[in-house]
Amino acid sequence: MKPTVEKDNRPDCPVGETQCPIIDELMMLRQLARTDPLTGLFNSRHFRDALLQEIERTQRQGQPTSLMFVDLDFFKKVNDTHGHEVGNTALKHLADLLVNNLRRLDIPCRYGGEEFVVILPGTDLYTGKFVAERIRSLIESSPVPLAKGELRLTASIGIDTYRSEDQDTPDAFVARTDALLYQAKAEGRNRVVHGVADLTTEAKISADEKAALSDLFTKR
Ligand SMILES: Nc1nc2c(ncn2[C@@H]2O[C@H](COP(=O)(O)OP(=O)(O)OP(=O)(O)O)[C@@H](O)[C@H]2O)c(=O)[nH]1
Q1: Is the C-alpha dihedral spanning 204, 196, 107, 50 positive or negative?
Q2: Which atom, in ligand 1's list, is nearest to the CA of 71?
Q3: pTM score
Q4: Residue of 75, 116, 187 to test ligand 1 pocket, by largest number of atoms within 8 Å of CB
Q5: What ipTM does the predicted assembly reach?
């Protein structure tokens, strides 16, 4: 889901007009305050608000929320070798890849620098692991087209899930997921590291469903 001009929470025009330039301007500024200018993704401010909302939904309705940290590998070398502009092109390339390969409900954000974060509402860890692996594989197999040749990238990913019975705070959830990303870096990069699997949920998924999920993600 990419930022679009918000239609909800639109304040009423103080003089009751349907077209109100001041309200339009206010909505635009509100949008800008939540958007990363380089990639067009949501920024870390929006990420925090959206995560709080999804965790609240998990606590009230029981649907799990997964969280994925995606960080490009050796990105400093990209800047050092090809220059900052090419680095920026690579960041935009990754942002587009995320937008084009996630569900519309998912919330990809630029967390900062070369680190991206995606909220996956209503997604258990089993499904989240498939999504993460598909994104990792797509990054590896989709080089960035440059004026001269192409730039190959890889990324490390940490993914974990907030379940209705979880007691940790949103910050603690972010910290435990971020720690998995750092584990992926430490274990050699270009890999997905996930949190502790919920064996009861996994056991409920039939072999047919697992095969269908696997098929779905390998065919895309
Ligand atoms: N081009 C560009 N580079 C950025 C931007 N934000 C951060 N960076 C660069 O991202 C690089 C991150 O480098 P490091 O934190 O050392 O990480 P890394 O080289 O990717 O190494 P690992 O993450 O350990 O694989 C630094 O060189 C930053 O300058 C940006 O908006 N544009």
Answers
A1: positive
A2: 23
A3: 0.85
A4: 75
A5: 0.95
